[in-house]
Amino acid sequence: MTSPSAASASESVLTTPVPVLERRPPWRDTFASLRVPNYRLYAGGQIVATTALGMQRVAQDWLVLQLSGSVTAVGVTVAMQFAPMLIFGLLGGVIADRYPKRVLLMITQSTAALLAAILALLILTDTVQVWHIWALAFIGGFVTVVDNPARQVFVNEIVGPRLLPNAISLNSSTFQLGALIGPAVGGIAISAVGSGWAFVINAGACLVVVTALSLMNTKELLQSPVAARGKGQLAEGLRYAKKKPSILLTIIMLGAVAMFAYTMPVLLAAYANDVYKVGSAGYGFFNALVAVGALAGAVLSTRRLGVSLRLVIAGAAVLGVVQASAALSPDIVVFAVLMAGSGAASLLFLTSANSLVQMSTNLGIRGRVMALYILVQLGGQALGGPVMGWIVERFGPAWGLAVSGLVPLVTAAVIGAIMLRRSHLHLAISHRGWMPSLAFLPRD
C-alpha cells in the first residue's frame, strides 16, 4: 500500500533531485562504494564475470559462424538469448521481489556455469552442433530473466540508498571494462587454444561470482522486504510505474534511446565497411572508442550530486545531439572523437536513468519495476537492430546515424515540453547583444 505522501509525490511531474549528496564529492570518493567490504567482493566477482562473458560471446558468435557459414545463424543465436527476456522478463521481476536476491544470484550464476561447462565439453570433444548452441543460449536467456532484476536490486542491499548511485556508476564501469578486455582476450584465446577454453574460463568466472556471494557478511546486508505471494503482482508493478512520472517518463525515454541510439554495432559496421573503408580493424577501433568514452562517462557519473527527471531528459538530448552531429563528420578523426563522446553521453544517460528509477521505487516492488526497465532496454535494442539495419541499407549510414540521434532528441524535447506544461512554465528566449538567454518563466 502506497502512503498518501508517496501518492501525492507520484502526481508531481517534475521529480526533485534524489538527496544523495549535499556537495560534489572529492575525487578520492569516486570509488566510495568500494569501502563497503561486501561490495568489494561483489565488484571483484563482476569484473571477472563480465570479462569472461565478453570472451564467451565472441567465441560463441565465431563458433556459430564457423559451423554454419551463415551470418543469419549468428543472428538466430542472439535472438535465442533475447527471446526469454522479451517474453518472460516481467515475471523475473516478480521472482526477484519474492525471494532473497543473494540466493537467487547464487542459483543463476551456478546455472550459467553449468551451461558454459556443457558447451565447453561439447566443443572440446568435437561433438558440438549449431542447435546445441541455440538450445543452451535459449536456456541461458531464462537465467538472465531472473539474474538481471535480482542483480539490480541486490546492489541496494549491499551499499544502501546513499551509495546506490555511486555503485550503479561503478557497475557500469565494470561492464565497460569487460566490454573492452573480454572480446580482445577472447580473440586471442580462440587463436591460441580454441573456442572451447573460452567457455571453460566463463564457467570458472561464474563460480568466482558464486564464491564471492557466499563469502559476504550477510549481517551487513540491508534486506529488502519480500513480497508475499498473491494475484496480480505483475500488473501491480506496471501500475506502479504508470502512476509515477519519474519512472514512466524515464522508461519511455529509455525506449527511444535503446531502440535508436543503442544500435551502434550496426552503424559502426556500416561506417567501417562503406564510409571510411577501414575493415574489421577499423570496426574494432570504433567500438573501442565508444567503450573508452563509456568508461569515462561511468566514472564521471560518480560525481553527480543527485539525479532528477530533468537530468535524464537532458542527458538523452545531449546523446542525440552528439550522434546526429556525427552523421555530419567531415573526416574520420572528427567521427572518432564524436564516437568517444557518444559513449560518454550514453553512459551518463544510462546511469542517471537507472539511478532515478531505482531511487524512485519502493523496495518491495523494485524488482518488478527494474524488470520492466530491463525489458524496455533489451527489447528496444532487439527491435532497433533490424530497423536501423533497414534504414542504413535503404538510405545509407549517414541517415542511419542521424536518425539514431534525432529520434532520442525529439523524444526528449516532447517530454520536456510536457514537463513544462504541467509545471505551468514556458521557455523564454531573450537577446542580450549577440548572445541568446534562456529562462523558464511562469505562464501568465
UniProtKB/TrEMBL annotation:
Pfam families: MFS_3. It is a multi-pass membrane protein. It comes from the Bacteria. The chain crosses the membrane at residues 71-96, 103-124, 130-146, 167-190, 196-215, 247-271, 283-300, 307-326, 332-357, 369-392, 398-420. Keywords: Cell membrane, Membrane, Transmembrane, Transmembrane helix, Transport. The lineage of its organism: Bacteria, Bacillati, Actinomycetota, Actinomycetes, Micrococcales. GO terms for molecular function: transmembrane transporter activity. This is MFS transporter. SUPFAM superfamilies: MFS general substrate transporter. PANTHER family: INTEGRAL MEMBRANE EFFLUX PROTEIN-RELATED (PTHR23513), STAPHYLOFERRIN A TRANSPORTER (PTHR23513:SF11). Gene3D superfamilies: MFS general substrate transporter like domains. InterPro entries: MFS_dom, MFS_trans_sf, TM_effector. Residues 38-423 form the Major facilitator superfamily (MFS) profile domain. It is found in: Cell membrane. Its main location: membrane. GO terms for cellular component: plasma membrane.
